[in-house]
Amino acid sequence: MWSAIGKHPQSQMVAVSMSGWDFSSVGWRVRELARTTDGYYFASRVESELAPWLSVENMEEQRATLHPADFARFWECRWTEPIGSWISREMYEACVTGLEAFRGDPAHAYAGFVDLGLVRDATASLSATGRAAKTGSC
User: Fold this and answer.
1) Do 6 and 71 fall into the same domain?
2) Euclidean distance between the first and final Cα of the chain, in Å?
């Protein structure tokens, strides 16, 4: 979408995003352009108060369990260097057993989702199953 903004003099774009880690990305470059250039509106939640439904105890639990770089990105809204890992190689290898199924039971509906980490960010995947409805959908 950003590349289309220059195609019309009255184009506007509203961008909302989480903090990231790729300082060479278009997200970072547009963020910095908006932050440092007159004519753009820029707002950030860096150093803001917690939302009223979040407690200090919740945040301390998150701080204790997340990698410091992930906590900084997710909760402090700070861009960080790409460090840390959610899943170690040993954890991943323990899941790959060679017994994975290639075809499911027709009595069940299956869905799978993948958020692919392209460079150094974590890849997340989810698979779910449930008894198929008469229509064959989940």
Assistant:
1) yes
2) 33
Which two three-digit tokens encode residue 111? 């869905």
Helix, strand or coil, per DSSP, at residue 128: strand
Cβ–Cβ under 8 Å, residues 93 and 102: no
Q: Which tens digits make up the pLDDT trace of 12-59?
A: 888 888 888 888 888 899 999 999 999 889 998 888 888 889 999 999
Residues 7 and 47 in one domain: yes
The pTM of the full predicted model, rounded to 2 decimals, is: 0.55
Structural domain includes residue 84: no
Residue written as token pair 């980490």: 117
For range 71-78, the mean pLDDT: 90
Nearest CA to 91 among 123, 115, 128?
A: 123
Q: Do the beta carbons of residue 73 and residue 93 sit within 8 Å?
A: no
